[in-house]
Predict the 3D structure of the following.
Amino acid sequence: MSRKKNMTLFEKILKASASLKLAVFVIVALGVISAVGTIIESKYDAEVAQKLVYHSKWMYGVMLLLCYNLIAVMVDRWPWKRHHTGFVLAHIGIIISLIGAYVTQHFGIDGSMAFELGQSQKFVTIPKKQLNVYAFLPETNSYKGLLDRPRDVDFFLNPPTEEDPYQLRFGANQFEIVDYYHYAVRESRVVRSDKDAAGPAIRYKIESSRANATEWLFVPRQSDSSESNFGPLTVRLARKDEAKYRGKNEVYFYAIDSERFGYKIFAEKAVGLVKTGVAKVGDVIQTGFMDIAIRFINYYDKSEEKVSYVEKQSPSNLTRNALRVKFNDELYWLGENSVLRVFSDQALYILSYGNLRLDLRKVTGDPNFDIKLEEFRVGRYQGTMRAASYESDVSVPGAGRHTISMNNPLKYRGLTFYQASFQEDDMGRPMASILSVNKDPGRGLKYLGSLLIVLGAIIMFYFKRLKFKSAQKGASK
């Protein structure tokens, strides 16, 4: 009791900081936070769990408290004796591992890269979101960035509102972000337009003995034509008759007036034009390709696409982020990883929103860095279309050709490329390979910390055995 009364303020604080009560509190807090994170991740996804839990001030606070407790425990044992060696090493190892995790989180790269067969790629996509604004320059047929730099944004933690919008000013104009949906499903419809620059639209049904398909084909404001593919047949819609044979089977539509549209059919076998005509809604034309016929359901000589997003409470394969954008008192929707094109009296402006793309030439310091997908292979479970294995053959200047599989990554200039997934077309054929790209600057610290923890545990076990043996010898005497 007298010892406690004679303790200085520093000693009292140190004793409290090194106490078992604080250690138990930290362990329980970590358990509770981790449990909450697991529940949130199962209900939503890993991104939401990271933002709300694992990267929150609560998690950082508990981690700092853990480091403080570990340091206080070591200081409380000062001066250290020989038998403290394992104890000190293990505690230092935990602190170094936590520092390594912090370095990785804030300075590392964890993204993905997708490319098709024969395609080269030098960019990696990471979860961080950015906004940027461009203007189209007709005199040079190019685009110019209007912001001094792209804006990093996190609308999940700081959502905009009508009362407090997120503003992007450029000259006398500005975009205002007035609403944000974290999970939203895109919906679109084609409507008649009275704008002079609007393009035509046709809703048609392809009929055949093998398959039937109904869709809209419309020409966007900034384009002269658009097209869609149906097996061996290409369906193309244009503002006016500028049809030319392009070496494939094609049905070419063009606007005539508000009721009628013309068509031209080109055949690969005939090496050119085989049929022309004029049609209206309700007509059916035979294409001459197998038994494919086209029935016309709707037609607008001037049209526009109205896009909207419906908010959802949980994620799915169809959900994405969506922004409600105001420009010149008009409201628009902008989905994740897409662009919004708007016109003013002076120019065409483009607002882009999506994941940050890092240039790996800058990351690696290699101006010639380029990774090319040479070949992609998928192994299937016997009798099914389920993928049992998949791997990519890639080539990198300076590193040659390398096979990347699930257990065989490519390591190059501090980057590690893992085979993550792949994309298939409607026939089940692989279209693109998806690689996970990782840079872990804290890996060395985490390895060192783990080594010290293991070494400390071994040494503590060794000293406990020595202490036990010496106690046995003393008892035998």
Summary: The chain has eight helices and 26 strands.
